[in-house]
Here is the input.
Amino acid sequence: MEEKEIKSLLKELGLNEYEVRAYLTLIRNGPLTAGELATLSKVPQPRIYDVIRTLMAKGFVTTSQGRPKQVIPLSPDSVMDAIKRRYDEKIETLKAALEKLYTPRGEIGSVTVVKSRITLEEYIRRAIRNSRFHLSIAIPRELLDRLKDDLGVKRDFRQDKPLRLRGGGSASHRYRDPHA
Here is the structure.
């Protein structure tokens, strides 16, 4: 991979131009003093200590204990693994938060053809139990009457949404739970 591409990817991971230059210089040369790092990376001397601090905060480098202090690059493998773990955690947290906010709109439903009346009733009961936002079914009035208990349970579960039913004729009905 060309250096230009490496620099671009490091910038995508949150490093600025000076941080990229300093880190790549350390990777190539090993531990350096702040002065040596400023000279070799062409980062202005007054900025080098800020750059070292941010690289340490981002987990790219550490410093030695002795004098003169040296800036030591951490291995690319450990740096990238740490970044990946942080991004994975952020993505999972964000995904969970967004799922809580998500309300599907205009999703495409499905059409199911069932030949047996018993299978049909069981399928409709299962669909009623599993519905979250919307369920459209076209059924004869007598089948609607047999499903009233299942519909009443679903109505109790979703008090915030009115339950409108259409069965048989063309008039729309608001379902009244006989157990309420």
